[in-house]
Structures are given as structure tokens and as C-alpha cells.
Amino acid sequence: MNMTFRYVLTLFGAVITIHYILSFTHTEYGRATSIGSLTSHFRGASKTTPTIPDRYYPVFSNETFAVDRRANATFVVLARNSDIDGTIRSVREIEDRFNRRFRYPYVFLNEEEFSEDFIKRISVLSSAKMEFGRISREHWYQPDSVDEEKAEAGRNRLVQEGVIYGGSVSYRNMCRYNSGFFFRHPLMQKYRWYWRIEPDVHFHCDIRFDPFLYMEENNKVYAFTIALYEFEKTIPSLWGHVKDFIKLHPEYLAKDNAMGFLSETGGDTYNLCHFWSNFEIADMSFWRGEAYTKFFEYLDEQGGFYYERWGDAPVHSIAAALFASSSQIQFFDQIGYEHNPYTHCPRDETSWKDGKCSCDPRRSFDYDGYSCMSKWDRLTQG
């Protein structure tokens, strides 16, 4: 054996020894130089699982969040036990698209006690705080002050006219509750902001910003994604009562309000436009304030939630448009949202790409013939 060969053999042995020492003492080195890792270069990278350093895995728990600062806010979900599957889908989507980063809490409300199965299946979907509450009878059911004979006649008329939910008392209970009571529930009292979510809705884009903080820091009170016309048959007397209230309380009208979104006649007539309230992010201080409290109480006294079929969408929209300035109402183009049968998909291509949106912008409802977005654009953009 010549000297050169002995030298090479000795050097090779030293390299092998050092390799094994490093493999045991340095985990990352061991992974990188393992047989599986080395042979993967010959098999092709698509079949391997790359090693991701621990620093790229932020710790999430109920005490440690992905962000340093959050608003005093919650999601609110009105659901029945029978809505469990649709509610799971909605929560799963908002978690995937937004809340796994921000960990805002949830409040679930029901006119009956939530079942153990509902609570169990919902609770596993997020590490965010979840609370389940029952709605009080006086806030949910048709009040005794309503003339049931007159209300029944109104329901029958709408059924004959083929109006959706025309004969439903429970739907009317829900609309009245969402209009004037959900923000008074004991579980909601500790929060200022809410984001309403319904069963079986879809969030089509990643939401990497905090809408609550944006609204808080920019003096916003109400946010929407879809605007459309209301069924006139459900609210024939609503605008007349709105005008009567304004005559009684002109002091509540905001300067630079959004009356132009609601009316082309300076408020004489209502064009039926409203923000679709199944998605809304809003400041409950606005609903709890004097102007809206008196407005809702006045409308509630008229009985239109039951004699007709007033929805919370036009009630909220009219109040926000009149008692807040138009600059305090926010359209979130970035939030891709769907509530059957309508979808809002971001118009801005950069937002659509950055949000990894699953919706088709060409099928967005924004400028459909039944949409009111063009009226909002005209008011806010001139």
C-alpha cells in the first residue's frame, strides 16, 4: 500500500468520524445529510418534505396571539341547533381566511339553549374564545303590543303575493332582534365592535389586515360588502315612518350624511337601496347611542316588523346612512364574500391576487342590475 493511498484512506476515515459526531450533536446537520435527504436530490424534490426552521412556526394559544394589538371586538353568530353544519362551514372558512392569525372571540346566540353537540362541534374549530348564549324571551318573541289579527292578515297577504318568508313569524322575530337587541345581550356588552357571520356563508379571499382596527383608527362606524334593493312589498310604510322620525328629531341627521344613497329625491322617496346586513362590521357604540336607540324604539312602536316584514338590513342601512357621515361607512372591496345567491369578489386585481381569492371577479354582484353599488360609487366618488 503506497503512501498516497494510506493518506487518502486516513483522510476519508477522519471525514466519516466528524460526520457522525456532527450528526448526533447538530440536528439540522443530521437532517440535511441523512441518506433520505441526499437521495432525494436524485428522486426529485416534489416527493420530499422540506424542513422548516422553528422560527417560521408562530405559537398560537388563548394567551399568545399572532398579532400584538387587537380591537375590543367579536364575531357574532345567530344560529339554531339545526344550523350546525352550515355554522361549521362558516366558522371554518373565516378561521382559514382570517381568524387563525388574529384570534378574535366568538359569541353564538340562540333563542333556545345550544345543544351539547352544537357546542362540542363548534368549539374544536378555533382556539379563540367562544361563548354560547340564550336570547331572552322579551327580546325575541312578538311583543304583546302587536295586534295579532292585523299581523296575521299582513302575513297572509305576503304569502299570497309570493314574498319569501312572507308567512314566517320566526323570520320577523330574527329581523327585529338583529335590528334592536343583539348588541344588548349580556355576552355582547363587553365588546365595542362586532362582525356578523351567518351559517353557510363563504369567504373567498385571505384577509391579512384587521378590519376592526382599520375602522377604529379611521373613524368608521359601519362596513359592508354587498348593496342591493329591498323587496318593496315588505316595507311599504317604512320610509314614511323614517320621515316622520326625522321631522321629530332633525338634530340626529349627520352632516354630510349618505341620504344620496337612499334617495334621488332629497329624501322625499326611498329608492329601496340598503347594505346587505348578513355581512356587516360595525361599532356597537353607534347602535347603543341616543339617535339609533330612539330611532329603533320609534319604529318598533309602529309594529312594522310584524304587520309588514321589515328587515334589519334596511333599518340598519337607513340609520347608518342618516345618522353617520358617508365617510364613516366603509366598503371593503378586499373581502371576498358570498351569501347565496350573491357574491362580492374584489374588483382590484392586486387585492384579488394577494388575497388568493377563489371567486371569479367577472361574476361579482357589484354591478348586477339588482345591485346598488353604482349608487354608492356615485355618492362617494362623484
Automatic annotation (TrEMBL):
InterPro entries: Glyco_trans_15, Nucleotide-diphossugar_trans. The active site is at 280 (nucleophile). One of its GO terms (cellular component) is Golgi apparatus. Transmembrane segments: none annotated. Keywords: Transferase. One of its GO terms (biological process) is protein N-linked glycosylation. GO terms for molecular function: alpha-1,2-mannosyltransferase activity. Belongs to the glycosyltransferase 15 family. This is Glycosyltransferase family 15 protein. It comes from Gymnopus androsaceus JB14.
